[in-house]
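Table S2 (text version). Query chain:
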Amino acid sequence: MAANGSATQHRRGKSALFLAVCGVAGLGPHWLEPGLRLVPASALALLLGGYSMHTVLLPALTRHRPPLLTAPAPAPAEAGADASPPAVDVVVAARDEQAVIGRLVERVAQLRYPSDALRLWVIDDGSSDRTPQLLAELQGAYPFLRVLRREPDAGGGKSGALNLALQQLEAPWMLVLDADADLQPDTLERLLPLAEQGGWAAVQLRKAVANAEANWLTRGQAMEMALDTVVQEGRLQRGGVVELRGNGQLLRRTALQQVGGFNEDTVTDDLDLSFRLLLGQQPVAVLWDPPVGEEAVLGLRALWRQRQRWAEGGLQRFFDYAPGLLSGRLGARRSLDLLCFFLLQYVLPVVAVADLLGALMTRTPPTIWPLSFLALGLSGLSILLGCRRSSEGPSLPAMHPANLALGIVYLGHWFLVIPYTTLRMALLPKRLVWAKTLHLGEDPAAA
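Corresponding structure-token output:
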């Protein structure tokens, strides 16, 4: 079910073109007259600053959010309702997850949902540890557990594993989880009715970092996840684009099948699927509460590897689906939303590096700083708004000056990841590797 195989043939050339354009945009102002050097960055700062205020900050400050964004707990009277809840298949692609797979099955078993409407599918994706043996033991204790197995060289990464399960699913809804996911017992009974009533094709739960206090790096990731959901909520309310985040994504099976299932020719199945649902006019929402808990990576090396994959997949989807995105079918509001997001997330870091090189070459001051300061300042404000908000699940980092400064500095890693990944994509052959994130569970020895 690789939906866009022909488009991926030219990713390397598109990466090189993107890199060249950003390079010219960063270097060019240094050869302008001194009074004009800051004009391009200042103009973009006004555009993106206005977009961010209107789309992200005003909705967060006024708290005028769509009803779906925080699902109320079900009233006691609803427990005896005659309407049967929709069936749901929980699907997990697991590779070498012996540290957490047993805990995941137990957590799904604790969900308050009718047993005849819930199935858990675990795809053992070529594990080389004790994951297969543990799953065999768990099947004897949990009748709702179904196990599928793939060979290590089956191909397609996580998307291939999910497609294998998709061929056998019959429930109208599919909840995709990572092996370290943690759900509240009432998640499904709150989430499914809202998804059906709202007519959504997909709903993304807020990702909450379970080990935020492990070190400064996990604390930074917890703040980043809160920021991400604040931004997504604002984009949804203003008619913009909402993106899936992999862990904790609820998908309507018919909508997923209509867009071709999971793309096996990408390194980020969730980001790719977000664009195919968008182009297929399938609405996607985001939910603040209840969240899905997950582990943050503990070290810089793991973070660097993970963020390279995210950056590569993020750029791939823009390159692959550019014709559809530019066709006009999205409408002016969504097109503007995507343009501003693309400029902030992918263009700005690359232009900032080119600007720094231009400053060194010409011995003139950097010119992109108004835009960079704006982006980091707005990100800090979004962190502040998100982490001060009431939330279920793992506690969010306390908002004091030290933590806020940490969050802003931490986000600076994207100014390294995006340019490096873009350069690698432009110079090296296509790389499609599903880089698994190590889940440690509660095993101190593994940590």
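Notes on Table S2: Residues 332-362 form the longest helix (31 residues). The radius of gyration is 22 Å.
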